[in-house]
Amino acid sequence: MRLWIREAKKEDLNRVVELIQRTNQLNATVTRYSKNEVQNFYNSSNNHIYVANLWDKYGAYGLIGVIIVEKCDNKPEWIFRSFLFSCRAMGKTVEQNTLIYIKKEAKKKNIKKIISQYNKTDRNSAIEKVFKEAKFTPISTSGKKQEWIFKLNSKQDIEYDKWMKVIKKPLK
Description:
The chain has a single domain, classed as Aminopeptidase, CATH 3.40.630.30. Helices cover about 25% and strands about 35% of the residues. It has helices spanning about 15-20, 35-45, 95-110, 125-135; strands at about 1-5, 25, 45-55, 60-70, 75-85, 115-120, 135-140, 145-150, 165. Strands 1, 2, 3, 4, 5, 6, 7, 8 and 9 form a 9-stranded mixed sheet that branches. β7 and β8 form a beta hairpin. α1 (about 15-20) packs across α2. About 30% of the residues are buried.
C-alpha cells in the first residue's frame, strides 16, 4: 500500500466537497460543508485541508480522505472540522496512518493538542475505533456529540505502520 498525504490544491476541492457530501461510515463530524465553505477553508490562513490518495498493487484508489484542521487563535491546538474517508479505504488502516501524518505535521508546527468532534450516528461507529487505535482520548462522551483529544509532546516518537509506505509524491 502507498499513501500520499498532502495539503489540498485548488484542483482537489471538487473531490473534497464530493467526499464531504457523500461520506457517512468513516466520517467523524458528519458536517456537510458546501463548496463555498470549503473554498473559504482553503483560502483561510487558520485552516489546512489535507487530502489522502491511496494505491495498492492493483492500482489507484484516488483521493479517498479529507481532513480539515483549524488552528485555534492564541492556542497551540488544532480542531478537526472534517475527518473522513471513503468506504473504499475501510480496513486498510489508512485512517490511522493519516492521523500519524497529521500528528507529525502538528508536531512540526508546535501544536500541543489535536481535538476532534465525533458526532455519533447509526452508521459511523467505525470512527470511534479509529480514534481509540490512534490513542485519542474521549474528553466528553455524553450523548451523540463527543470530543476526542490527542496531546502531543516533544518526546513522542510517532511511526507509520511498517507495511504502509507514506510517499512524498504521487505514483504514475
